[in-house]
Amino acid sequence: MKENENIRIIDIAKLAEVSPGTVDRVLHNRGKVSPEKRAKVEKVLKEINYEPNMVARVLASKKVYRFAVLAPTFSPGGYWQLVCDGIDRATSELKKFNVNTEYFQYNQYDRRSFDKAVKAFKEKEFDGVLIATQFGEQVIKLSKELDEKEIPYIYIDSGIKDQNDLSYFGGDSFASGIISAKLLLREVGLDANIFFAHIRFKYNEISVQMKTRELGFMDYLNKQDFKGKIYQVEVNPDDHTQSLAQLNEIVSNSNGLIGGVVLNSRIYELISLLDKMDKDLSSRIRLIGHDAIERNIDALEKDKISFILSQRPEVQGYDAIKALGNYLLFKQAPDKVNYMPIDILIKENIKFYNNYKL
């Protein structure tokens, strides 16, 4: 018989010469069915290439699916708010399938905070997990525990190699580092000095993403016969005294333009520092930042940043939750790696980018 997605249970029953109730029990694997009758039904299903209406089946099942999200806390307008906005939108769309999402949030600069969030997560039962990967070692440990329980999990923000994650949604951090270096060298040249600005927080942690971006950045410099010096500047947002003196010295002792890069979304903290410098010095600095959050966009529009690289955080969160839902609800496995576009933003195109809504 030709495949017909609209075929009814009663039609299958007639073909198999059994009752509709028997067909229903076979299709939903519930109740007792004699081996002979089960064989008749399965033979007909095979002959007609029957595929059940998965949406109708899920809606009828009334099963509740619980997803956990391990992600950083955020301030209004911050990077992780954008990620969570995408997660919330996807969850809203999946609510008709009885999907609920619960957040377990932590301080992204404090691995002890991550451990507390994981502990709280373990006290409950979930069908799937979305994990932001700031702390590589802890994430790998948690992943192994989820593997043992056969609970699917998806990574966002940065991928971790050789794990059994269902999928990864986010940027290619190594490529992002390469692009940052390429853009910055075109601004300042191969002979210019460059500094990495590390924004200090209460806890001195460097995420997987930042480490990978720096590897990509340095890989590109090493392949381009870069002749300048590399400096590391630690910026304390609460006290600029030391970092201001260090930057003044770097620029004063350098010829021509200077390149600066911040490997996470907090380049706005560096802008606050540069605003305190003598303009003759700060005007020689060209900056590359990451993530189109409000404070970074403001600095870009004011020509204080040359380029911002963005990896569409809202789309990351949205796509990751939808993928987890499609996998558990409809048995649709996502691609293992799902890279977001690496958008290069400048003053002249940022307004068009901001007009884009998920």
TrEMBL record:
Q: What name does this protein carry?
A: LacI family transcriptional regulator
Q: Which GO terms describe its molecular function?
A: DNA-binding transcription factor activity; transcription cis-regulatory region binding
Organism name: Dysgonomonas hofstadii
Keywords carried by this UniProt record: DNA-binding, Transcription, Transcription regulation
Q: Does the keyword Cell cycle apply?
A: no
Which residues does the UniProt record annotate as the domain HTH lacI-type?
Answer: 7-61
Q: Is Transmembrane helix one of the keywords UniProt gives this record? A: no
Q: Which Pfam families match?
A: LacI, Peripla_BP_4
InterPro entries (UniProt xref)? HTH_LacI, Lambda_DNA-bd_dom_sf, Peripla_BP_I, SBP_2_dom
